[in-house]
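Morning, I've got a small favour to ask if you have a moment. I owe you a coffee for this, so here goes:
>
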Amino acid sequence: MSLQDKAKAIAKNIEGKAQEAIGEITGDPQQKAEGKAKQIQAQAMNTAENIKDKAKNFINKL
């Protein structure tokens, strides 16, 4: 995983957690849902990058 992509995923996750917390505090279900969605997106970004890394490692072993 490139450092830049990892940083983007971490930032997206933090943004999502903050937005979810704000939604929880203010009682805004839309904010809370959007925050959860951003966290899921960050998780998907991490998974995609991990798959790329594994593929590169596999190819390098050949």
User: Anything to note?
Assistant: DSSP finds two helices and no strands in the chain. Residues 4 and 37 are 21 Å apart (CA to CA).
